[in-house]
Amino acid sequence: MLEIRQRIGSARIRCVQLGLLALLAVVTASCAKQQSGAALPALKVDSARMTVVGLSSGAYMATQAHVAYSDRFMGAGLVAGGPYGCAGGKLEQALGPCMKAMPAPPDVKALVESANARASRGEIASLSNLAHSHVYALHGKKDATVAEAVSRASATFYEMLRDSAPELAAFGVTWDGDRDFAHLLPLAASGDACDKSETPFLGKCGFDAAGAIFAALYGAPQHAATEASGELRQFDQNTYRQKGVDTYLADSGYVYVPRACVEGKPCGVMVAFHGCQQNAESVGEAFVRDGGFNRWADVYDVAVLYPQTHASLAPLNPKACWDWWGYSGADYDTRNSAQLRWLMRALDALGGKAG
């Protein structure tokens, strides 16, 4: 009889424990929902210090943002991405010439001509804005996902634009393609194997890509980066959607705000686009916390905006890639792009208004 009572007592305790755990889960989910429903903080943004960076599909997206809105961005850091307009709205073109350089690499001359025509029609900003810009293109020799010729074409695209107009003579383009790493974002002292392209696509390679990108786009640092000391915040991405327009973005995004920016110092903004399968729904906060950008953001007084995509089957985007082939509409790489217009609204809210 005593044994039965002990078992009943243990069962009741277990039920209470399970109830408390369930309640804790509900409270945690509620808090997360409240946090993700927050708006972007209003900062004192120096609109002349806004840049874009990205890995893989994020690099394509960074290029699209940089070219379409060169009047707002003064630089781009591109890791394993190809030239602007490469896919031409066709998935087969994206998967062939624009990733594998098969059956041939991208026709950069034709892409430059197309970009000039688009600028003359007002579909993208005037390319003369690139005169005060800088591009840093990075590619790993062990990258088996994006061919080196494709990444090299991204730098060549900008070089051909620079060389085609005397007013663009000061436009800086840096190609960095002699490092041994796979299809990932290389880190200096943490991460997974550098020679394997595996989730979360952050590799311990003895090379700090984030630091190199910051130096290329903002100049040499005044001191070395240590641990990030600012605030990583979630925000509601739906707040910045245009009514009736699907951007195919996740409900929540992230922004990293250095302490100096929180305290009211004028700060730049870097938009960091994750790669395919590197969004928060796939890898948690690995990219937004461990990619290396936050600690350098403290050094340069630059807030980092981390927009987030989500996977979908209709349209077909199972790996949560950024739209660089047209799944969000025919204007995906112009100033009328659903995702880029969302980005402009988010930047305006952050304080980086044009002009």
Polypeptide structure, described:
It is a single chain. This protein is 36% helix and 18% strand. With 355 residues, it is an alpha/beta fold. α5 links the parallel β3 (134-140) and β4. The longest helix is centred in the first third of the chain and has 35 residues, at 2-36. The chain is globular and about 50 Å long.
Average pLDDT figure: 91
Strand content: 15-25%
Low-confidence stretches: 1-35
Q: Assign the structural class, choosing from mainly alpha, mainly beta, alpha/beta, alpha+beta, or little secondary structure.
A: alpha/beta
Helix content: 25-40%
Spatially, the strands of the biggest sheet line up as 4-3-2-1-10-11-9-8
Q: How would you name the oligomeric state of the polypeptide chains in this document?
A: single chain
Number of DSSP E strands? 11
- Continuous helix count: 11
Q: How far apart are the first and last residues' alpha carbons, in Å?
A: 82 Å
Helix-strand pattern, N to C? Answer: HEHEHHEHEEEEHEEHEHHHEH
Strand-helix topology:
Blueprint: H1 2-36, E1 45-55, H2 57-68, E2 75-79, H3 91-95, H4 108-121, E3 134-140, H5 148-164, E4 172-179, E5 185-187, E6 192-193, E7 202-204, H6 209-218, E8 231-236, E9 252-257, H7 259-262, E10 267-273, H8 280-283, H9 286-290, H10 293-300, E11 302-306, H11 338-350
Parallel strand pairs: 1-2, 1-10, 2-3, 3-4, 5-7, 6-7, 10-11
Antiparallel strand pairs: 8-9, 9-11
Helix pairs in contact: 4-5, 6-10
